[in-house]
Amino acid sequence: MQREAAAVREEWLGRALSVRPADRPAAEAAVSGLYRLAGFDPPRFHWVPSPLAAFETVPPGMRQRAGGAGVFDGPAVRALGASLARLRLDLDEEIRRHCSGLAGLFRQQVQFSLATSVRGTLGLAARSAHDPERAAGTWYDRLCVSRIAYFDVARRVAGVPFAPEHVRHLDLWGAALSSAGWWWPHEDVCTVSERPVAVRTEVCGDDGEVRPHAPDGPAIRYRDGWDVHAWHGRPVPSWVIDDPAPDRIERETNVEVRRCAIEHLGWPAYIEGAGLRLVSAAPDPGNPGSELRLYDLRPETRVLLAVNGSVERDGHRRRYGLTVPGAIRDPVAAAAWTYGLSAEQYSLLARRT
């Protein structure tokens, strides 16, 4: 049953991260059906090429609202959210009645895995299009396919007999969430984004979770040219991918962005380009066969260059740098400091991770 559940998960992940043009008739029919179930007449549809365009354009017949107010709240949003909540409660009850023993497996392997993947990719792109708001996160969580996929696997794999009206409602949400990109409902009009034209990811979890990553261009790109760059799941400015030069790295104030840029450039190239002075080197007692190298970085600060004790998914051991106080001159003591240990205690480690 785990294999069947994994197959359903991959099917929904493929739908969520699809780069095919939106199926506009299917999306409009599904959203219209959801509006009716929520007590509203079907809306007019305003299609945009990207989530950013959804916040930069005003649907015909609507007035611009200051600061994007009402984008994630309003009668239509609340009604659709309440309708979905009722559906979830009803379906959860059927799952408890017919396959409660499998619910935990399906949640972990399907729902939680998909939530991690979608929030970290298309969710990341949507949040990058505007200032993060709690209401925004709530709406994007509703539009994540993870919960719909959870109910789908319960129906298809465990054979939970949902009522016909629940199946129709579930299928409408499934079609609305997998026929196009993100959408934002108002009472009379619904803004819908096209899908991206490129989504580049890497596997990052044991249940098939993925995160955005591209070493040579945007990780997510839309047809209007708007894009998001990412390094192993971390959104970064485009220069980190396109031109991670030592001087630009030195000017960067965000520690995580600096780390990503240095990793992309490579520590040897960064050390040479930045002209860092080697203070001392020593074998790493916590990682036999590897070396610790301590460099001057800036006043009162040094950087310890070490090799990860664990193997990455690609079979390599990642080289990384850790900043340590400038008063430390011994690389073993510097490594110990990062673990809150003395140099003697660190030297007794069998292998660090």
Write the layout of secondary structure elements.
Layout: H1 2-16, H2 24-37, E1 44-48, H3 51-56, H4 75-120, H5 122-128, H6 134-142, H7 146-156, H8 164-178, E2 183-185, E3 189-193, E4 198-199, E5 201-203, E6 210-212, E7 220-221, E8 227-231, E9 234-236, H9 238-242, H10 246-251, H11 255-265, H12 267-274, E10 278-283, E11 291-298, E12 301-307, E13 319-325, H13 331-338, H14 343-347
Unreliable runs: none
User: What structural class do you assign from the helix and strand content?
Assistant: alpha+beta
- Rg of Cα set: 25 Å
| Proportion in β-strands | 15-25%
Largest sheet: 4 strands, antiparallel
Run of helices and strands = HHEHHHHHHEEEEEEEEHHHHEEEEHH
Count of DSSP helices? 14
- Order of strands, main sheet, comes to 4-7-8-9
| Mean pLDDT rating | 90
Number of strands: 13
Inertia-based shape? elongated
Q: What's the helical proportion of residues?
A: 40-55%
Question: Alpha-carbon distance between the termini?
Answer: 34 Å
